[in-house]
Amino acid sequence: MELPTTETLLLALEGGVLHVTLNRPDSRNAMSLAMVQELRAVLATVGGDQSVRALVLRGAGGHFCAGGDIKDMAGARSKGVDAYRELNRAFGSLLEEAQAAPLVLIAVLEGAVLGGGFGLACVSDIAIARRDAKFGMPETTLGILPAQIAPFVAKRIGLTQARRLALTAARFDGSEAERLGLVHFCAADDAAVEQRLAQVLEQVRQCAPQANAATKALLLASDSEPLGAVLDHAAELFAVAVTGEEGAEGTLAFVQKRAPKWAE
């Protein structure tokens, strides 16, 4: 697999894990249109490669992401409403694609996790935050809307809490993010973050990649499709899995009391 060339991202593929670092530290990794396009290209490249088991997304320079790039927004002003609409919707497409990616998406959150960065946290499968990270949805303090992230925030933490946070622009730390269900783990310092990340990645490696991808798609579908249709489709997926290569290997490994091939 050949990864795309990027200017705003640092990419490192190690042991089936793609580490993606947002790399605009001078702007606290503000989300420019170039960064959005590069992230979408990376997701498109790795989405069909089952050798990549997980994608770890984090930020350079002590911050995850401080939101949208104000310079990009200022540059769109001369082009009118359509330019703003396209700029905003491109980020929404990134969130859709990140959420639906068949691999496990892990967000490591520190420093600023604001606006668009908040949205990225909400589409991760597993989120690990430093306790002193600063979360918030500051859009309304700028006279704008959290337009593309709002649906993902509401799905993540519930409509009641999403309304409170969006309509007050309240800031909160990693401990509160864990209480809200925005993140799964809250760590005291860098060493604790790395320890938790290593533990999560080891757990992911125990799971068969095709089974994980199908399970993630099933869970996402269960949130929006009629129950009967979801269960019918789930039965088909189960039959294919249990008679397929991974199912055969997994059951054989269990009987032989050994690790399956994907966990070696």
TrEMBL record:
Signal peptide: none
Pfam family, one: ECH_1
Top-level lineage group: Bacteria
Gene Ontology biological process: isoprenoid catabolic process
Keywords for the protein's UniProt record, in alphabetical order: Isomerase
GO-annotated molecular function: isomerase activity
Protein family according to the UniProt entry: Belongs to the enoyl-CoA hydratase/isomerase family.
PANTHER family reported in the protein's UniProt record: ENOYL-COA HYDRATASE, POLYKETIDE BIOSYNTHESIS ENOYL-COA HYDRATASE PKSH-RELATED
Protein name: Enoyl-CoA hydratase/isomerase family protein
Organism: Pseudomonas cavernae
